[in-house]
Amino acid sequence: MKTNLLAITLCIASATTAYGQGQTLNGQVLDAAGKPVIGATVVEKGTNNGTATDNDGRFVLKARTASPRLQISSIGYGAQEVAGSGEVSVRLADATNSLGDVQVVGSRSQNRSITDSPSPVDIIDLREVTTKTGQLDVNQLLQFVAPSFNSNRQTGSDGADHVDPASLRGLGPDQTLVLVNGKRQHQSALVNLFGSRGRGNTGTDLNVIPAASIERIEILRDGAAAQYGSDAIAGVINIVLKTSVKELTANVNYGAYDAKYRRDDQRFDGGNFNANVNYGLGLGEKGSFINTTVDFNQRQHTQRAAVPAPDGLARREYGDPKVSNLSAYVNSKFALTDQTHIYAFGGANKRQGDAYAWTRFPDDDRNVPAIYPNGFDPIITSDIIDVSAVAGFCTKLGGWDLDLSNNFGSNRFNYGLKNTLNSSLGAKSPTSFDAGGFQLQQNVVNLGLTRNYGTVLSGLNLAAGAEFRREWYSLFAGEEASYKNYDPAGTPDSLRRASGSQGFPGFQPTDAIKADRDNVGAYADAELNVNLRWLLAGALRYEHYTDFGSTLNYKASTRFKLTEFLTLRGTYSTGFRAPSLAQINFNSTFTNFIQGQAVEVLLARNNSAVTQKLGIPALRQETSNSANVGLTSRIGPALSLTLDGYYIKVKDRVVLTSQFGNDDPVIGPDLVALNVGQAQFFANAADTRSLGLDVVLNHTAQLGAAGRLNSTLAANFNQLKIDRVQTSGRLAGREDDFFGPREQAFVKASAPPSKINLTFDYQVARFGTLVRFVRFAGVDLIDWDGNPMNYDARVTTDLTLSYALTNHLQLIGGSTNLFNRYPTLFNPQLTETGGAWDPVQMGANGRFYFAKLQARF
After folding, report:
1. Could you tell me the pTM of the whole model?
2. Signal peptide position in this chain (predicted)?
């Protein structure tokens, strides 16, 4: 930490650029109809100097360079760059999806601004967010900015300690589709088995993409499987990479937590260091460019095992994992002619992590006192390599815009163990192991065509396309000592020691598998402006999977402008989610802790002899019906409001069942024969129903001659109910045993029933202040004894202060969770993860202090 602070001090000390007495620039920003654009961002290129337009669309900015260039942008409009001299007058055109631009998620129309969208879309400017908040990775940034998005770090959750599961509108991590520049991003190879979020789900690891490479994030809060295919039941997150050129941005960030619950005297822990650099190079005069980003992030362990919780301690080590993350990303476009270009983007991420497993105390029969006389805390290590590469070709074909692309992605997750042992080897046991792992790969070939007919009524847009996707999944075994029991043959069961590496037994050769599948899809959609007020839209998509068959989905949308200031919108759609290859093929024997006692659990793959014997059918796709009804309004020149109510019904949801013991009257003898204490499975076991409301209220006010205050109230209210639990085979009629109240509670707790975000962002001259309050509603879980665990509502407060040191350097500092709020405390022996709380609501690390130094040239 001292080294980092010294580096920051040296950077500040060397910043001797004198403040220039540049010219004062005045101007006005209007839309295509000549109306003022309120709150448009005006930035002097290559500096941190900027402002926003007032209620009349006007701005005043004192230039800091001799020949200033102004970059002017606003959500829903195309950005412009103009020379800053004298009186500046700019007219912004509606953002359109012309051949060289990335489309706004939710519509394939080339003439649709996001303000006209029949579905709710959040646009998050990452430049603004990363400058004004303490969070460093994409998941945590969205957790505190987008109310419908939820993601918490977990501990004691095996792989989920290293890959943060995230959810949208309270559904599962695998029910949100992630795109990068409009192209499908591959999922993580990990299937989440523990923790309070994403149990039994696979999902997309957003943190492999550095925030420094992202221009904006678009969140479509609406079912979109008919437009984009599998996984888009809850919505779509589209990550748009930077396209800026001739601009160098570099950031150095450091932060640490207030270590309230450590057993030692250390004042801070969880130190988080991040450094990144982004630069774009322009090529020629036709918009060709290469934009590159390199990002390094390292965070240290937090320690929260010394919480004064009732009834003892389940673990000696409990807290966030240590993670080192290195990423490199590229976004590029190369113009061949005025109407044809090729593009390529993608990157690589390498992550290594150390996560605490459950404590083995000195008298534990899984310990070897000759190696660890005081017991030990196993460390689960991860080595994750994620790569993606997209290449495409865009051109005009008659009156059509054609886009042909190929998209490859791979995620490989390898487990290791250290500070552990195989107790069946006694004092000869190694203390580190390779435990094996898994890999998921995806290749997508996509062809899309769009065309706009401006003379059909007030405009008709047609789109059609086809897609071929192949996926591969492999699970590979660890080294022999990570899973084998070395007790001599004939050793009585009562004397046999535990097999494999403690903390995470390695995958066995019988677990290993290679699987693949193909998917072919075709879609068509249309958007018709009946007149200037009324829009009708529809989409149809057919898909065929080689492992479970075909599905046909549709979507219908409308938008009607009642007045100039009030618009109604609505959608209805069907959707689906194909079970992931990981859910179908994952197989493992692992150690779980129930009331502090270790139990061996078999998670049997879906098509194994065990599941077939029990009559559990092959996994099939989830299906959904979604409806969204909303309104958008601009109440006066500085106030806007959106209200969107939604209904999502999911049938045949894939879940991880409850655990069955070897004393079960039906399947117990089968588990005894397998030498397994407990077993669980993946099954299409639940039908769920979600009802919710999204509210976003924005206000912009000019305070004094140079001050500007942006205020935002954003909220999500969500209620998820489980309508039906389905059983089959030898477990028919045992709904509470198959998918019981405890497992149901985890599904319902994928998001708090409400999350309300109130933000005040004030900027004057070189100073900036952001204050944010986030209220997380209470969450209800069930402990190992079957008793309710009611986590009370919590409010967190964030404070950020910023100051422009020079034309090119900005210093930012502050605190998240300023008042050190923690979830409700419980008995660690009864929680899922062995700490005094589960990973719910805002997380469990307390107050975080941070400082950032940003350079822009």
Report:
1. 0.88
2. 1-20
